[in-house]
Design brief:
- Pfam families: Caroten_synth (PF04240).
- InterPro entries: CruF-like.
- This is Putative membrane protein.
- Keywords: Membrane, Transmembrane, Transmembrane helix.
- By secondary structure, the chain is mainly α.
- The protein has one domain.
- It starts with a helix and ends in a 17-residue tail after the last helix.
- It is built from 9 helices and 4 strands; from the N terminus they run H-H-H-E-E-E-H-H-H-E-H-H-H.
Length: 288
C-alpha cells in the first residue's frame, strides 16, 4: 500500500512546488526550480524502481542522467549539438560547466514521456482492477514508432522549458540565430539537439531496461498524470503568469502530439464498459 502511494505523494509535493514558482522571484524562484527538478527526478526514478524494478531504474539513470550529463558537457565545451551556450551560477554547483540538476531534469521527463508513448502504441487491454493497461509487444516498425513518439514527447517539453529558463537568465546562448518566431534568445539548433539526444535516449532505454518497460497498466497513472499536468500547467503558466505567450503557443502545439492523444486514450479507457465490474449473479435468471 505504501509503495502504491509514494509516487502520488511525490507528485502532489511537486505540483505544490510548481504552483509556488510564479508567485516568487529571484533567489527563491531559483531554489524552487532546483527543488522542482529534484522532486521530479525522485518521482520518476522512484516510480521506475518501485514499478519496474532495479534494472529499469538503473537503465533510466544510465541513459537519461548519465547520458544527459555527457551531452550537456559536450554542448558546453563544443557548442554541439545545442549551439554555444553557458549556464549561470543560479542553479547550484556545476561539473564541467553543467549544473548538476540539469541531467536530473532530462531524467524527470524522459520516463513519463516513454511510458506515455508505450501507452499510446500498445492495444488497450483488460487487467483486473485497472482502467489503463497496455498489452502486447510491437514489432520492429512498431518499436520505431514508439521511439519516435517518445522522442517528440520529451523534446516537445523543451518548447516550454528553454524559453522559461532563458527568461530567468539561468542560461544564455552566445549566438541565438536563427530562432523560432516569438522565441528570441534560443537558436533552432537547440531544439534539433534535443531531438537528437532524445532519440538516442529512447532508443537505448528499452534494450537496457528490459521487457518490463514495454507495457503499461494502472500503476503508471502517476506518470501519466505528471505528463499531463506538465503540459496543461505549462500552457497556463506561460500564457498567464509568466507572460510568455509565444512559448505557450509553441509548447502547446509541440507537447500536444503526445499529451492530447494520451488524455483522450485515458478518458476513453475509463469510460469503456468492459472496464466496469461485472454485476454479481444471484443464481436466479430474470426473463426478458
Amino acid at each position: 500500500m505504501i509503495r502504491r502511494h509514494v509516487p502520488w505523494l511525490l507528485l502532489a509535493v511537486l505540483v505544490l512546488t510548481q504552483i509556488c514558482y510564479p508567485l516568487t522571484t529571484g533567489v527563491t524562484r531559483a531554489r524552487l526550480t532546483v527543488a522542482t527538478v529534484v522532486l521530479g527526478y525522485l518521482l520518476s526514478v522512484g516510480h521506475a524502481l518501485l514499478r519496474r524494478g532495479p534494472r529499469a531504474a538503473l537503465a533510466l539513470v544510465a541513459v537519461a542522467t548519465g547520458g544527459g550529463f555527457a551531452i550537456e558537457a559536450l554542448g558546453v565545451a563544443t557548442g554541439f549539438p545545442f549551439g554555444s551556450y553557458d549556464y549561470s551560477g543560479e542553479l547550484g554547483p556545476k561539473l564541467a560547466g553543467v549544473p548538476l540538476i540539469i541531467p536530473l531534469a532530462w531524467t524527470w521527463m524522459a520516463w513519463p514521456a516513454w511510458l506515455a508513448a508505450v501507452r499510446l502504441t500498445t492495444p488497450a487491454g483488460r487487467a483486473a482492477g485497472t482502467a489503463t493497461a497496455g498489452t502486447g509487444t510491437p514489432g520492429w516498425a512498431g518499436h520505431v514508432g514508439r521511439v519516435a513518439l517518445a522522442t517528440v514527447g520529451l523534446a516537445g517539453w523543451d518548447l516550454f522549458l528553454d524559453p522559461q529558463m532563458v527568461a530567468e537568465g539561468y542560461w544564455v546562448w552566445r549566438d541565438a540565430t536563427p530562432a523560432l518566431p516569438g522565441l528570441p534568445g534560443i537558436p533552432i539548433s537547440n531544439y534539433l539537439g534535443w531531438l537528437l539526444f532524445a532519440v538516442l535516449l529512447m532508443s537505448a532505454l528499452r534494450p537496457l531496461a528490459g521487457p518490463a518497460v514495454a507495457v503499461t497498466d494502472s500503476r503508471d497513472d502517476p506518470m501519466f498524470a505528471l505528463y499531463l499536468w506538465t503540459y496543461f500547467s505549462s500552457v497556463l503558466a506561460h500564457a498567464v503568469f509568466l507572460r510568455l505567450p509565444a512559448s505557450a503557443i509553441w509548447g502547446a502545439v509541440g507537447m500536444a502530439v503526445v499529451a492530447v492523444p494520451l488524455a483522450v486514450t485515458l478518458l476513453r479507457a475509463r469510460r469503456r464498459p468492459v472496464d466496469r465490474p461485472a454485476p454479481q449473479r444471484t443464481g436466479v435468471d430474470t426473463p426478458a
